[in-house]
Amino acid sequence: MTDRHSRPFSNVSLTAALITLGVVGWSGAAVAQNNNTVFAGGKLDVADSAYVGATVGLPGSAEGKGWAVRGVAFTGGYDYQNGPTTINADFTGAQAELVYRFGSGPTWGSVGLGYRYVDTDLSPGDPGNRRDGGEGEVMVSLDGGHVAGPWRVDWYGSYGFTLDDYDALASVTHTIGSSGRVRAGLEVAADGDSNYSAYHVGPVLGFKVGDQGEFQISAGLSDGDNRDSDGYVRVGFYHSF
After folding, report:
1. Per-residue pLDDT averaged across 200-216, rounded?
2. Domains of the chain, each with CATH number or no CATH
3. What is the rounded average pLDDT of the residues 11-21?
4. Virtual CA dihedral for 130, 156, 65, 214, nearest 10 degrees?
5. Which of the pair, 175 or 211, is modelled with greater confidence?
6. Cβ neighbours for 98, distance < 8 A, ≥ 6 positions apart
7. Cβ-proximal residues to 210 (8 Å cutoff; 6+ apart), any chain
């Protein structure tokens, strides 16, 4: 499997999945003082994708601390070249995690252990692609954040043990204006497995929605193995309660 590249504005259910991994970046770590969070987002890039999910505190947890469960459903697609043949890959999947959340004051975080299942449909078929069909794997995740005055740092990462797939995102933002409702900064992300690696870097904006939600948008440069540099657009939303 070589030369992954994006389809021309394929959308891959971006609208249908409510502007929906990655990380999921800010979804788990964004709100430390609330026990439940719903989140959704999507990305137009080499692999266009969308996701929706929720983190729900278990009995005995409070204020974003203690045990919780996190579930995510996602879909997406990409094209790649195998010799002279262009192969379309569409994937749909879900993951469920048991998460432990911790922290106090300006710093928070969580660690998770779960299971991810992905079903990939290739057209035409590619027997040499190990992602063809259904694949399940145990996965781990880590996320967190820290606030220091107007500055904020967020991070997220996950790793799957069967496919050796990983994704990571980190951002640094600064509050703009006296209202405290807008953040601006820079994000860097990487993903891949044993066959490829990719990354993106670009500015990011966060807009507070109500008292317990935020909408985020980022756009910038995307690059990776065996492909040309391209642009990306990522959007995300969360609401806690």
Report:
1. 95
2. 2-240 (2.40.160.40)
3. 31
4. -110
5. 175
6. 67, 68, 69, 112, 113, 114
7. 239
Cα Rg for the chain, rounded, in angstroms? 18
Q: How far apart are CA 79 and CA 42, in angstroms?
A: 17
- Residue 29 is encoded by which pair of tokens? 């770590």
Q: Which residues contact 83 (CB under 8 A, 6 or more apart)?
A: none
Q: Cβ distance 106 to 129 under 8 Å?
A: no
Q: What is the pLDDT of residues 35-87, one digit of tens each?
A: 899 999 999 988 899 999 999 999 998 888 899 999 999 999 988 888 888 89
Measured from the Cβ of residue 48, the count of other Cβ atoms closer than 10 Å reads 23
Q: What is the mean pLDDT of the chain?
A: 85
Amino acid at 229: S
Separation CA 147–CA 29 (nearest Å)? 12
Going by DSSP bridges, is the β-strand pair 107-123/133-148 parallel, antiparallel, or unpaired? antiparallel
Overall residue count recorded for the chain in this entry: 241
CA distance 143 to 112: 9
**DSSP-derived pairing of the beta strands 197-209 and 213-224:** antiparallel
Round to whole Å and give the CA distance between 43 and 185. 18
What is the C-alpha to C-alpha distance for residues 204 and 113, in angstroms, rounded to an integer? 28
Contacts of 18 (CB under 8 A, 6+ apart): 40, 50, 52
State which amino acid sits at residue 154: D
Residue 33 binned pLDDT confidence (cut-offs 50, 70, 90): low
Tokens of 118: 């992905």
Q: Model-level pTM greater than 0.85?
A: no
